[in-house]
Amino acid sequence: MVRIRFFDTYEREVRDFEPLNRDEVGLYACGPTVYHYAHIGNLRTYIFVDLLRRCLEMAGYTVHHVENITDVGHLTSDADTGEDKMEIGSRRTGMNAWEMAEFYADAFKSDLESLNIQSPEVWCKATDHIQEQIDFIKDLEQKGYTYPTKDGIYFNSRKLNNYGHLARLDTAGLKAGARVKQGERQFVTDFALWKFSLPDEQRQMEWDSPWGKGFPGWHIECSAMSAHYLGDFFDIHCGGMDHIPIHHTNEIAQTEASRGTRLANFWMHGYFLKMDKARMSKSSGDFLRLQSLLDAGYEPLAYRYYCLTAHYRSELSFSWESLDAANTTLQRLYSTAFEWGEAGDISIPFLSRFQEHIFNDLNLPRALSVAWELIRSDEPDSVKKATLLKFDEVFGLDIAGWEPIDVLIPDEVQRLVDERLAARTIKDWALADQLRTRIAELGFSVEDSETATTVRPLS
Ligand code: AMP
Ligand code: ZN
Question: How many A from CA of 89 to the centre of ligand 1?
Answer without folding.
Answer: 17
